[in-house]
Design goal:
Blueprint: E1 13-15, E2 18-20, E3 24-26, H1 42-53, E4 58-59, E5 64-65, H2 94-109, E6 113-119, E7 125-126, E8 141-142, H3 145-165, E9 169-173, H4 179-184, H5 199-202, H6 204-217, E10 222-228, H7 239-250, E11 257-261, H8 283-293, E12 301-305, H9 311-319, E13 325-327, H10 329-334, H11 338-343, H12 358-364, H13 384-390, E14 399-403, H14 407-418, E15 422-427, H15 435-439, H16 449-462, E16 465-468, H17 474-479, E17 484-487, E18 491-493, E19 507-509, H18 510-514, E20 523-528, H19 534-543, E21 548-553, H20 564-576, E22 580-582, E23 585-591, E24 594-599, E25 605-609, E26 613-617, E27 620-622, H21 625-633, E28 638-641, H22 651-664
Parallel strand pairs: 3-4, 3-13, 4-6, 5-6, 6-9, 7-8, 9-10, 10-11, 11-12, 12-13, 14-15, 14-17, 15-16, 17-28, 19-26, 20-21, 20-26, 21-22
Antiparallel strand pairs: 1-2, 18-27, 23-24, 24-25
Helix pairs in contact: 1-2, 2-3, 3-6, 7-8, 14-16, 14-22
């Protein structure tokens, strides 16, 4: 049990007419948890209400996209990169309002409050003919008075629906690629009428929206805004100018709270900060706003968010006056029960967010709809109803042997032990964690080791018999007389078999470099055949050790599968490290003094010389030989193949696969 005193974090706070039971907030995040697009279904309720049951006091759930004044002859543009809503919005559907009422009742049953965020999220409408975001380069439609009036009225109409459904507060989204942001920004608002000008004039649209909402809901609901602490864009507002605009808005007496995040929505720094960002990096922005707003006659609470995954840090932020409320969205995705665990002194049981950002990244750009929410380390996310329906204590506890202590093996062992099985885990290394331990050695990725600590703590808490430095073979497994065996032996780096010279002594694997098994010379060529994080991780690891690194990559740019909230920071770090990137090249042949590449798109070849070492990043191949041997013998009643030993993919897939096996043994 922990002896940390959370005197501030778990104290209630009055925000306008709303009493928040503690200071932990799920700020609004569109993770697309509903399996029924346009409605709040049982999956949505299960996902967000789990955080309320887990002790999060403020539930922001997912944003309400508002209707826009498209001409009647044009189609809707929902879900495209422009981010627009259409002629009709979900809140106008009576079925949506009914399901929202059920959601509010569910959250209130746990004692938490419901905050509804209202959003005009788009790059089609803007106050001036300037592209709204860097992800698109077309000029938006310039809004006329009638269109501005239409949009302002939608805030009030949606607020009325939220009030009737039982929500406790309204938040108007004025940060990042929203209409509110477009009016606040000196880049996108260059109007010379009453809607443009200096900071005070550019705040007029937001103030008018607040006025209309307040006229609709009166003092029955708390009212606030979400705003970016600084624009992080050339020519955009800095923190001082944001404070000036926020002060003007606060002076109206309309605000009960302000929700501050900071960063870019397509570049660096990101407002969804990954592990490459320091914890609570822009906390001073919260403290400055809190000091400014303290001068107001009406008390205005400051909610600050930005990579806060630790309740101890959250307590310190409140104690030291950086904010009144703390946004901890991804902390609650990684572990919906983290708040209760912290309050009860069970800090060692918290599954801490590792800052990989896969959850928000993929939800913002889903490849398919409906989209299943994903967390790299929590297998329940996106599968809440399945776990509620299928998780049961084992009817007949079995003797289970798990081979491999990576994430798939650990999750299989953890869930099986939770259900009452007697589990032995065999791991050939000195620690549990598998590839997590490799990733954690890279600059900015040390948080990945937190999941290894979590698994180690869980194995001890659940009584799993962990046997480290144990090499398993068929005989050793049979000697343990298991009734079920899980083979989670992972994968090994792939070596191409069609590249002459690949076996030269100066050619090494990226994994071996990061594990310290091999060293390189000063000038290093990294050959990349993968589009996610492995290549930038290996390249930065080498650069941090003073190596001159050049990456030869198969695709149009490095990290094509890294989504929008993270790719900017990855490429920024490559630039800062002086890493040169050569895209669209595939390795064809190696010599002791040179390399030959072929274009990814044609037959043209290129020769490069002068490298001391060549480091391969070619993904990995599964290790399933032990599984094949056991299956051939037919000696194990229940035999499973898990994680990368089945198919090398990413962390979330291995987590879910291993946990799913633990669920069905």
């Amino acid at each position: 049990m922990s002896n940390v005193n959370f005197e501030h974090l778990f104290s209630p706070l009055q925000v306008g007419p709303m009493r928040v039971p503690n200071r932990i907030c799920e700020t609004t995040n569109t993770i697309n948890s509903s399996m029924t697009p346009g409605l709040i279904d049982e999956h949505f309720i299960a996902h967000h209400a789990a955080k309320a049951r887990g002790g999060t006091g403020w539930i922001g759930s997912e944003t309400w996209l508002l209707d826009a004044p498209f001409p009647p002859e044009t189609p809707d543009e929902i879900g495209l990169p422009v981010g627009c809503a259409g002629h009709q919005a979900a809140y106008q559907n009576p079925a949506f309002a009914e399901s929202m009422a059920r959601f509010c009742a569910e959250v209130h049953q746990s004692g938490s409050v419901v905050v509804v965020q209202l959003t005009h999220l788009n790059a089609v409408w803007a106050p001036s003919p300037v592209p709204v975001i860097g992800a698109q380069d077309y000029t938006p439609h310039v809004m006329g008075e009638e269109e501005i009036e239409f949009c302002l009225d939608t805030y009030a109409r949606a607020a009325a629906v939220a009030r009737e459904a039982g929500a406790d507060a309204i938040e108007i989204h004025c940060a990042h690629e929203t209409l509110g942001y477009s009016f606040l920004s000196p880049v996108t608002n260059r109007r010379t009428d009453k809607w443009g000008g200096g900071p005070e004039q550019r705040a007029r649209f937001v103030i008018e929206a607040l006025k209309r909402v307040r006229a609709c809901v009166g003092e029955s609901m708390a009212l606030g805004i979400r705003i970016n602490g600084q624009e992080s864009r050339h020519g955009g507002y800095d923190n001082l100018e944001m404070r000036e605009m926020l002060y003007c808005i606060g002076e109206t007496g309309l605000l009960d709270f302000v929700d501050i995040d900071t960063g870019h929505c397509w570049g660096a720094p990101s407002y969804v900060p990954s592990s490459y960002h320091p914890h609570a990096e822009f906390r001073e922005f919260g403290k400055a706003a809190r000091a400014d707003l303290a001068l107001m006659e009406r008390k205005i609470a400051v909610l600050f968010t930005g990579r806060i995954n630790d309740p101890v840090l959250a307590e310190e932020l409140i104690k030291e006056g950086f904010c009144d409320l703390v946004g901890m969205v991804r902390a609650g995705i990684a572990d919906p029960e983290f708040a209760n665990k912290a309050r009860e002194g069970r800090l060692g049981e918290i599954r801490r967010c590792i800052g990989c950002t896969r959850c928000i990244d993929e939800a913002s750009e889903p490849a398919t709809m409906p989209y299943t929410p994903t967390c790299s380390i929590n297998p329940v996310i996106g599968n809440e109803l399945r776990w509620q329906q299928q998780y049961r204590p084992a009817q007949e506890p079995k003797r289970v042997v798990v081979v491999g202590g990576g994430i798939a093996g650990c999750e299989a062992a953890r869930v099986a032990a939770m259900r009452g099985h007697r589990v032995i885990l065999l791991e050939q290394g000195k620690r549990l964690g598998g590839q997590l331990l490799i990733a954690a050695r890279a600059p900015g990725r040390d948080s990945f080791e937190d999941q290894a600590y979590f698994e180690e703590n869980e194995m001890a808490r659940l009584g799993v018999d962990v046997r480290l430095q144990s090499v398993a073979d068929v005989a050793a497994i049979k000697a343990l007389a298991p009734e079920a065996v899980v083979i989670a032996t992972g994968s090994v780096p792939r070596v191409p078999d069609d590249v002459p010279g690949i076996d030269l002594p100066h050619v090494v694997q990226g994994w071996d470099v990061m594990l310290g098994k091999v060293s390189t010379g000063d000038r290093v060529a990294v050959i990349s055949q993968e589009d996610y994080y492995q290549t930038p991780t290996v390249a930065e690891f080498l650069a941090a050790r003073g190596k001159q690194v050049e990456v030869f990559h198969k695709s149009v740019h490095l990290g094509t599968e890294i989504a929008r909230y993270s790719i900017g920071m990855v490429l920024s770090r490559m630039e800062q490290c002086g890493i040169q990137i050569h895209p669209n090249l595939v390795l064809k042949q190696l010599w002791p003094d040179g390399l030959e590449f072929v274009s990814s798109w044609g037959g043209k070849t290129y020769r490069r010389e002068g490298f001391d070492s060549v480091v391969l990043v070619y993904g990995s191949t599964p290790q399933h030989e032990l599984y094949d041997q056991l299956k051939a013998e037919g000696c194990i009643p229940q035999l499973y193949l898990a994680g990368s030993a089945w198919l090398p993919r990413r962390l979330a897939e291995a987590t879910r696969h291993g946990a799913g096996i633990g669920l069905v043994i």
